[in-house]
Amino acid sequence: MRELEDYIVEMENRNLEMGQSSEDLLTQLRLKENDLQLAAELGKALLEENETLKKRQDSIVEEYTKKLEFCVRLAPRHFPANEYEHGN
């Protein structure tokens, strides 16, 4: 994410510079090409991070599902049904 913050700062600075000096078309095209490359790299990094987070979430869900199933199996032993009916 630090790269994204650096990119935003760079773009803000470049916009200020462009207003103060006139750049030729070739330089502008090179800058846009660089921007596109960086955007593609950032997009790829974000997709990879998203995939990592999804895998972690799936792992956590699986872990807690197993724990919940274990608790449900144990509950009848520790809390017989008649205790629920009588409010004890």
UniProtKB/TrEMBL annotation:
Is Coiled coil set as a keyword in this record? yes
Q: Which InterPro entries match?
A: Spindly/BICDR_Dynein_Adapter (IPR051149)
Task: Write out the entry's keywords from A to Z.
Answer: Coiled coil
PANTHER family from the entry?
A: BICAUDAL D-RELATED PROTEIN HOMOLOG, BICD FAMILY-LIKE CARGO ADAPTER
Q: What is this protein called?
A: Bicaudal D-related protein homolog
State which gene encodes it.
LOC108559037
